[in-house]
Amino acid sequence: MTKCKSISERQLIWRISKILGDIVNDDCAAIDIDDSQFVVTTDMLHRETDFPEIMTPWQIGWMVVSVNLSDIAAMGAEPAGLLIAAGLAPEIDLSFIDELFTGLKDCALAFGTRILGGDIDTSRELTLTGCAFGFVEKDLILRRIGARRGDLLCTTGYLGTAGAGLYAINQADFKNEYIKYLLEPKPKLKEGRALAHSRSVTSMMDNSDGLARSICDLSEVNHIGFVIQEESLPIPHEIVEMVGYEKALEFALSAGGDFELLFTVEPDSLEAAMKACDLKVIGYVVDKGLWMERNGNKRKIVPVGYEHKFKLSN
Asked: Domains plus CATH for the chain?
């Protein structure tokens, strides 16, 4: 008898990885080319699950490019271009297509790269897949693996901004400044390259699925744990004023969509990292477990965040 069960995105990824074999859990795949590494990533986005209804076609295009370039940034790489595959409904308006592809182009140009080509097809639901390429020197490439006990955990930018933007949309507060953080994310390419050149980083990824889920991913690949120092989390006070502290903390931990860089640094290398970019030390690496520390007291962190769910048959 066939039964259906729910399976998380990460569980399905691990299952497929076992079938394919030799799949590295990184933001990008990396291929050796002479003295460099060619890095490549792909992300698929859908109208219903990834694009809030208030998004303009231009913002949809911008987001597709941005989320792919964020993976390039997490490897410390320089972008070399993107391919775009677009599944378009047969009845779609031409003005929508014009604005959509203008958004794709504008985001690529804003971050020093361009759209190289791609494919279009018909689809019941608007579906856009980006594939971004980049290059990074072999001795500078940054990966998720490499964190060690005693390393400091750092982040660029602020946490919880995208979650605040989605909250504002749900409250019909359409003039809220944080909506732009959600709908027009900016990949941290400059920061990623600078951190790579600083040679101070031991592991790195982007935090697009939220802080809690991201530290869980880093802990699993490195077989270590983390303590997050709650007082150090860079949560804008405007968000706290808007929703209260506990809700703002929830946004930072699990809402996702911030597209900042999350990375570990040896304590002796912190000064070099701070010269590379603006950062905030938010915790440190321990032997095991995921913990939140507040006023010297620790509690366990539940690794929740943005994740697709599937119903599959056994």
From this structure: 4-137 (3.30.1330.10), 152-313 (3.90.650.10)
